[in-house]
Design brief:
The complex is a heterodimer of chains A (101) and B (371). Chain A is an alpha+beta fold. Chain A is globular. Chain A contains three helices and five strands; from the N terminus they run E-H-E-H-E-E-H-E. The N and C termini of chain A lie far apart (43 Å). Chain A has a single domain, classed as Ubiquitin-like (UB roll) (Roll), CATH 3.10.20.30. With 371 residues, chain B is mainly β. Chain B has a single domain, classed as YVTN repeat-like/Quinoprotein amine dehydrogenase (Methylamine Dehydrogenase, Chain H, 7 Propeller), CATH 2.130.10. A four-stranded antiparallel β-sheet of chain B has the order 3-2-1-30, with no helix packed on it. A four-stranded antiparallel β-sheet of chain B has the order 4-5-6-7, with no helix packed on it. Chain B is globular and about 50 Å long. Chain B starts with a strand and ends with a strand. The chains are: A alpha+beta (101), B mainly beta (371). Chains A and B meet through helix 1 of A and strand 6 of B.
Chain lengths: 101, 371
């Protein structure tokens, strides 16, 4: 089944990928963090390495994932995300952690 | 008429400053990559319109940008920097082993002969190279693995490989410097390396004369004399006339020999520039007076250059990659400060003026002299 997911990116990544605040990605099969990031990086290769490590695919320390008022950062990358994200009614938020100054 | 293009990396983006050969009126473009730290930009000597930039962020990691039109437009290229084999450990601040972790690229050095080939100096210290315009990167692992790597320790700013000098007479010879490991040289194009720190003396490490462990801040070389190197160490200004095999101190009458930048006049290989900084705990000029010091004798005898520089209440720093010289007949000298000023002299340092006053903190400056 194909889902169209809305992803909200932080300003620095919008600038890098030359996209607006909200981007759409199409996903075949279960909607998971891994599936969303795979699709995002395929559509915008310059985002590779900016949200997760190139090799280990682990989330970068100061990147967080939110949706439906929940912090999903510590979910397994292969865990299915809330249905509202899969249906495109709620965005998947990529957030730069509030740290530094 | 000749033109000059300054490539300025700052804490919040990159700026490109251009002027004609008189260097009186400057136009400023930027910020490019706004909001990102831009550690360094440098143009290819083969194709000056080919410029590479290191864009980095504690949140989003490393990006390398490439321009093929002199900095008007940019495209992200490869950012996959992976240590060769098992990365191993170096020493942490407390002396315990710490895994090598890639953090950022401090310095990009394009090849002298090919616009698609360049070196990248990384934190944690390693030398990478690309031969396809920055699309893919591989490590010269012989540097970290030559034997002393596990003893290297980070300086206060991180364990960064910040200086890369290619010998114009022999491209197989490359010098690099690491804080706080020291200086190293390869004579075979990067396959094997040796420490070149004999003569350096660092009172702040257990063995002041150790083979490695010295906090080298920057090294400069005049292209006509690639065996002569000038070093601003944490403390001490040093000189080598045998390709780094031995060093001697040339601090002479400097008011303080702590500092970060050092550079050489474009046409006078014995004319040097440093910016003395008060101390390792007070990173600003002595008494709030910003002074460039010039030696016309290859060191030891230094004169302060102050005309046009603030002589009161100035408490900025000038970081290690933030000085450059152009190659016009009347040599231009440029430096940037952590206060966001870029100062220029079009007469070898006799007179200075601020091109811009209020950029973000300047991390690096390079200059291109264009036809």
């Amino acid at each position: 089944m194909k889902s169209v997911v809305h992803v909200e990116l932080p300003a620095n990544l919008c600038l890098l990928a030359r996209v607006s605040h909200l981007v759409e990605v199409s996903i075949e099969g279960p909607v998971t963090q891994r599936a969303i990031l795979d699709a995002l990086e395929a559509d915008h290769p310059m985002l590779q390495g900016t949200m997760r490590d190139h090799t280990s695919k682990l989330r970068r320390p100061f990147i967080r994932f939110f949706a439906c008022d929940q912090d999903l950062s510590h979910l397994s990358p292969d865990e299915q995300l809330p249905e509202a994200v899969a249906k495109g009614t709620e965005p998947f938020l990529v957030v730069g952690a509030i740290a530094g100054g | 008429m000749s033109k000059v293009r300054l490539l300025v990396g700052t804490r919040k983006g990159a700026f490109v400053l251009t002027a004609d050969g008189t260097r009186k009126n400057w136009s400023v473009s930027g910020p490019h990559f706004a909001g990102w730290e831009v550690y360094h930009l440098k143009g290819s000597p083969v194709d000056p319109n080919r410029i590479y930039a290191s864009q980095t962020s504690g949140w989003f990691g490393q990006v390398v940008q490439r321009s093929d039109d002199g900095g008007l437009t940019w495209n992200a290229v490869g950012n996959k920097f992976v240590y060769d084999g098992v990365a191993g450990t170096h020493q942490w601040y407390d002396g315990t082993p710490h895994p090598w972790e890639f953090k950022r690229v401090w310095h990009l050095e394009p090849s002298l002969t090919c616009a698609d080939t360049l070196y990248a100096g990384a934190e944690d210290a390693a030398l990478f190279h690309s031969s396809d315009g920055g699309n893919t990167w591989s490590e010269f692992a012989g540097l970290r693995n030559h034997g002393t790597g596990p003893a290297w320790q980070p300086g206060a700013g991180g364990m960064c490989l910040h200086t890369i000098l290619i010998d114009p007479a022999n491209p197989q010879r490359v010098y690099i410097a690491i804080s706080a490991a020291g200086a190293f040289r390869t004579d075979d194009g990067g396959q094997t390396w040796k420490p070149i720190n004999r003569g350096l003396r660092s009172q702040y490490i257990p063995d002041p004369n150790a083979e490695v462990g010295h906090c080298v801040h920057h090294i400069a070389m005049h292209p006509s004399r690639p065996d002569t190197l000038f070093m601003q160490k944490h403390w001490d200004v040093m000189r080598s006339d045998d390709a780094g095999d031995s060093w001697r101190e040339i601090s002479g009458n400097l008011p303080t020999d702590f500092g970060f930048v050092i550079d050489v006049h474009a046409h006078e290989p014995e004319t040097l520039y440093v910016v003395p900084i008060k101390s390792d705990s007070e990173h600003f000029p002595i008494d709030g007076k910003l002074q460039v010091h010039r030696s016309r004798s290859g060191g030891n005898e230094w004169e302060p250059l102050t005309r046009g520089l603030p002589q009161s209440n100035c408490y900025v720093n000038v970081l290690r990659d933030a000085m450059a010289v152009d190659t016009l007949d009347s040599c231009g000298i440029y430096f940037g400060t952590t206060g966001g000023q870029v100062y220029a002299s079009s007469d070898s340092g006799d007179n200075w003026n601020a091109i811009v006053h209020d950029l973000p903190a300047v991390l690096s400056i390079e200059v291109q002299t264009l036809p």
